[in-house]
Amino acid sequence: MGIARSRALVGEGWLPGITVNRNQEVGGGQVPTPGSRLESVSMSLRDVIIIGAGPSGLATAIAAKHFGLDYLVLEKGSLVDGIARFPINMVFFTTPELLEIGGIPLTTPYEKPTRAEALRYYRKVVDTFQLQVSLFEEVTEVEAATADEAAEVGAATLFQVHTRNARGVTRVREARNVVLSMGYYGAPVMLDSPGEDLPHVSHFYREAHPYYRQRVVIVGGKNSAAEAALEIHRAGGHVTIVHRGQAFGDSIKYWVKPDIENRVKEGSIAAHFNAQLVEIRPTEVVLDSGVTLPAEGVLLLTGYRADADFMRRAGIDINPETLAPAYHPETHETNVPGLFVAGGQVAGKKTGSVFIENGRFHGEVIAKTLAGRM
What we know:
This protein is α/β, with parallel strands linked by helices. Helices cover 23% and strands 21% of the residues. It has ten helices and 17 strands. The longest helix is centred in the N-terminal third of the chain and has 15 residues, at 115-129. The protein is globular.
């Protein structure tokens, strides 16, 4: 296959090998006809394009490289962009070994790793394996070619991946297979309330300092809402929580839950339970009870989920109730042959069922499947 690679165990992963591009063998040795599709893709057709450079996407790339596949990772933002969007002072709920990929250890002096340590770790992984990652290149469309078009280049399946970079330049990349591993953190659950697009409203919390001496309404009742409320309160902000449930969620980190409950009990953080926000105005929000709350800042921390519309446009069947994609659990291949899903992409509404801890294993399953077909 014209592939040279070296293997060496590192824990349960591999040291980086050297892969010769299989593009030289596109079409099984066919001679391209001038002007044909084969001629146009013979130097650019990859075995697999991986969309998303989060932990599951990077784990897929490591496995693809191990099996000698010609791959490329495309990421619309920075490396592990979902983690980069986390609050600056965020501490993971899990222990470091459960975030590891490729057998590279994540070292930390603490019991649980921080956001900064995770970012440094995944940069190290990419450098160690010399992974091919194109950052700030957003995929706008994944288009499956017809069987005849695929056959013309000697492939069972063929995809055109349309992209746009940060400068607005567009291009079309082609691959035999595509893996969707964009996760869900970049796609917040919208309330569809009037005023949701106002400049003082955000679906992401970064840090507390900008909210000093500001009145802040936080919508949500799980980890992100509780941690943001505590940080802003301790930085001198005036916080009110609005949550549709009757109490904070049971999934809140064990060291956070008693803290937030005690702050509400003592009155230092206000809370409206069994309540929903129905309108956001420039200086206040309106609840379904008719109560208005003054607000210079509004954080809508109501959760995130994978972009179901994007997957539908690619031809994937989406369960209308769960919003989960149709895929085979043993291969992670969707109903569209050659199109796979990994990590948080499989979760639908049940985002609490897929984490870095289990999503990092999807890539090896997919890469093994693809290697067996080459």
